[in-house]
Sequence to fold (691 residues):
Amino acid sequence: LRMPAIEDFMRFPQQTWEKVLSKVKKAVVFMDNRCAEALHWSGGAAVLLEAGARNLKEFSSFEACGENEPKAVFVVSTLLKGRTIDIIKDIISLSHFQYCVVITTVAHSVHLAANSVTAEMDGNPVFEQFEEKLCEWMGNMNYTAEVMHVPAVFAPVSQQLLLTPVFAHLFPLLLPDLDALNAKRPEKKRFGNLVDVDTNSLPVELQLEIKSLAAVLNSMFEAAGTREESFAVGPMSRIIAGELASHPQAKTRRKTAPNKASVIFVDRTMDLTGAVGHHGDNLVEKILTVLEPLPGHVTDIQVDMLELTSLQRTPHSNNILAPGCLAQTQSPAAQALWETMLTSKHKEGVMEVRRHLVETASKEKLPIKMSMGRVTPEQLCSYMQLFRSRPGMLESHCGVLQLGLATAQTLRHPIMSRWDACLAFERLLLQALGDSDFGAVLRQLLPLVKPRGGEDSTSPGSKFREDECGPNELILLLVYLYSLADEAQPSDQDAEELEKLERELMGALTLVIAQEQHLSPLLQKLTGCDTPEQLSMERAHAAVEMIFQTLQGLSQTRDHLKQLRSVYTASDGVHQATYRPFLRQVVEEVFHPDRPDCPDIEYMSGGLTDLLKTGFSMFMKVTRPHPGDNPLLIVFLVGGVTASELRLIKEAVSTHKPGSQVLVLSTRLLRPADIAELLFATPRLTPDIGV
Fold:
């Protein structure tokens, strides 16, 4: 038995892209946004062009090729059905291809399931049929068509973190989803709880999404020669782990794979407090919150590069200059800096940015003014401006400079004062929960819920203070509070009182949203309106009602757990009340020296033999596998992970079992506002699988 190394898994994204690269010589490549985002973290468009691709275009019906471009490669993250097929047909019919390659990240087994084929089949009949279709569309059955599956869904965002942008909108179900599922079931077959929901009772789109995720995870374990022992915490995690356990190819792999690893799937809904709170103390979390996202991307952001040029800032200068970003795959110095920024505390991250800039400038013999003490954005900019209009140096150190600019632009951004205001208020709410009932704590939120800019906020010229909470922050504070509702003191207040208070809050929040003069992306998604002019009071109220329906069930997400039920420690008179991160509790359980059997970390790989053993356990001692048994631990967060949780995991491991290998997988890297979108504006039951 060789120890599986994290490197085996971190190499996998590169290996999958190599399969794609082997097909792109002399081709025009059409790629959808989700695949483009995965490639972005594995070298980006440059690697395609180096491999001989002639051009890279968006996967869209509005694109096509000229007569002198006979070869096309399509890379898509969706099933070869419906809309995806229509787009491929449109592009081919407007072009003059003689050779087409279609690469989908969705496995053939999932295509069979999508076509309701349950039998095991030899070969790839769905792909073979599609190859014939492609030749038909190209207009000659002797032309060449290839259709294949490559699991190019993983983005290696850091040495210990793999993301799957393709599944960025996969999120554990909530109580409103349970109601929606039950509404379509006969009375006697309704589910009492999310824990009771099984794969087959989910809508077909979600079933296919989960099967697709299980298939790419299986490919990854196969490439790393690893058999996994799966554990799950939370209802969606159980379904995904169960799907991986019963995946047809996983069974054969588990018999022959030389290495072993433990995988714990954890539902994001087990800890929403940590995902919306501003206590992360992490530089990257702030960068992701403050700077605009790269168009079409879920994770990376745009860095304004103007300061490194001699251009004047005008309304159009943004369109002249390509933005920088955080994914610096070509520069080892920038990668080292990024790792520190991602997994350290805010202050250490900022100090490290300064150190890198000072070292880089000194290496280039630039006239640098050393200064100790607090790092300011002005100081960082003064170092970076030394590189201005020096093309050779800019090219050599572009990676570090982009991370430096991202840091300076975040530190001096007006939103940062709102971040601190939210943090202060969350701390107040934490203390209040230990002393009062939920209604009383909720009442403390009411004075904050008012339109920005004070009394005369309806007059167009009124200015609001930078640290005033806007609707985005208010929604996040509500999520924070409702996720902890069960921690409040028992109430002698009747339900009617609480309902009345909630109605008051709903009215106030409706006003706040309706009077916004600029709709943030979150508000656009919540209300379905692009501009304040389109937003009526009715639409604002409907959005707020829907938010509160979801909020009211958030405190029950851990009700089915026996041991890890709380993320809160009340004040004991000496210490203040604190938030206890759920992930830290899970990792501490896994690496606890006494190896306790935690009932909430459920073993999922056993299948029938395990059930039989459990039946015999009255007569003999049965030991369940423990997630701490194997040399490698993989934690998969279903629904996203925050940068500060990466640090928590790293710290918990080095405290409890130094030297252990831990790899984190997740669907996305979260900023607090993402959670509001996933809770209130994402169709969780019917993800978009391109059909």
Remarks:
- Residues 456-463 have pLDDT under 50 and may be disordered.
- The longest strand covers residues 259-267.
- The two ends are 43 Å apart (CA to CA).
- Residues 6-152 form a domain with the Rossmann fold fold (CATH 3.40.50.2060).
